[in-house]
C-alpha cells in the first residue's frame, strides 16, 4: 500500500491541474446562488452546469452550499480545499476527473445560521436552489401544504426567526427580500412532480400560518420555476477517493462519482436573472411537466422497482440487477406496456428510445450504484414514482400487474430480510411505523396488503379502496414468497 498522502487540493494549485479543469480561464465569481442540500447530486449536476455557464458567458454565480443536516464534517472537508472537489465520471470509455470551482462556500445549519441569513439577505444572491430529497419538503402528503405535525415545522412556527426546515428558512429569507425589495428566485431541483409548484405550496402554506400578508406577497411576487434534473450519482466510496487522488496527484476528501450522462430541463422563469445554463446544454423551456413526469415515472419508478426486488434477492448494485436477463425483461416490459402508455409527451419525445437509453445507463458496470441507497425513503418515493401511474392504469381499466409487483416488492422489503434471511436496515421517515405494521401481518400476504394500504401518507384513499389492486398485490406477494428471482421471471 502506498502510504504517501499527497497535499490537499487547493485553489492555489489549480494552475497545475489544467488538464482537469473545464477551462483554464477563470475569474473567481461572487456568490450568486445559495444551494440548500449540498449533496453529491448538486455537486455533479447543477454546480457543473453553473461552472460551464460562467465559463461560457461570465456572471457572478458562485455557489454557497448549505447542509441542512448540520454535516460539519462535510463542510470542513470542502472548506479545507477551498470549496473545490472533483467529479469522477465513469463510463464505458473509462474515467474522467474534473475539478469544479463554482462552489465558493459551505455552511452547516444550524451552526452557521447567521452566515446563511447574511447570504440570503445579500442582493447579489438571486437564486436559492434546493436538492433536499422528498422528505426535506416537510409536506403533508394529502394536501401538499407544509406538514404542521412535523416536529421541525412545529419548531419553526414557534421560532420563525430561528428556522430549521425548508419552509421555515425560505419564509424567513423571503420576508427579508420583501422588506429590502431585492428579488430572489426559488428553484427546486428534487424528484417531485411539478416541483416548483409543490415547493411554492409548502412555503406559502407555512408563511400563511406565520404572516398572511407575507404569504400573499410570496404568491404574487416570487418565482418558483420547475425543473427536471437527471444524472445518476451514487454515494461516494473509498474507491472514488483513490481515483481522484491518482488522477490529480492531490488529496480530495470530497469527490463525487457519477455517470457521463446528464440532463437538465428548466422552466425559464427567473425574474432576478440566471446563469447562461441554456448555453451549456440545459434545456430552458416553457413547460417542464412532460419531462418531469417521464423521468419520475420511467427512470425513478424503475429504479425503485429494481432496488426493492434486488434487496430481496440479495443483489447489491443496479448493474448486477439489470445483468439478470429476467430483470432486464421485466423492467423493459414495465416501461413499455404499463408506464409509457400513460405519459403525454410531445411527439418529438421518443419514449422507447428513452427506455432503451435508461436500460443502458443502468447497465453501466463502473458505477456500482447501490440498491440500498435507492431503496431509502420508499414511503416518500413510491407515491411519486409508481402510484400516479398505477391510479391511471386502474382508472382506464388497463393491466397493472407489473406496477403492482413493484409495490408488492416494497411491501415485502419492509419485513427487513432478504430471501436468504439476511437482515438489512430500513431507512425511511416512517420506518418504525411501517416495520411494525409489516410485522403485525404475521406472515399473511393478505394482512400485509391490508395494513399497508391503510397508510394514508402513502396510498390515496381511492387507490387503497380498489379491490382489484388489493387482489393483484396479494398475488404478487404470494409469488415473491416463492422466491424473488422466480417471481421476477414470472412477471417479466
Ligand atoms: C434514485 C435517484 O436514489 C434514488 O432514488 O432513483 O437518485 C436517481 O438516481 C436520480 O434521480 C437520477 O437522475
UniProtKB/TrEMBL annotation:
Transmembrane segments: none
Domain Mannitol dehydrogenase C-terminal: 287-480
Keyword NAD: yes
InterPro entries, alphabetized: 6-PGluconate_DH-like_C_sf, 6PGD_dom2, Mannitol_DH, Mannitol_DH/Oxidoreductase, Mannitol_DH_C, Mannitol_DH_CS, Mannitol_DH_N, NAD(P)-bd_dom_sf
GO molecular function: oxidoreductase activity, acting on the CH-OH group of donors, NAD or NADP as acceptor
Keywords: NAD, Oxidoreductase
Highest taxon above the source species: Bacteria
Domain Mannitol dehydrogenase N-terminal: from-to ranges: 32-278
Database matches in Gene3D superfamilies: N-(1-d-carboxylethyl)-l-norvaline Dehydrogenase, domain 2, NAD(P)-binding Rossmann-like Domain
GO terms of biological process kind: mannitol metabolic process
PANTHER family for this protein: MANNITOL DEHYDROGENASE 2-RELATED (PTHR43362:SF1), MANNITOL DEHYDROGENASE DSF1-RELATED (PTHR43362)
UniProt-recorded name of the protein: Mannitol dehydrogenase family protein
Native organism: Trinickia symbiotica
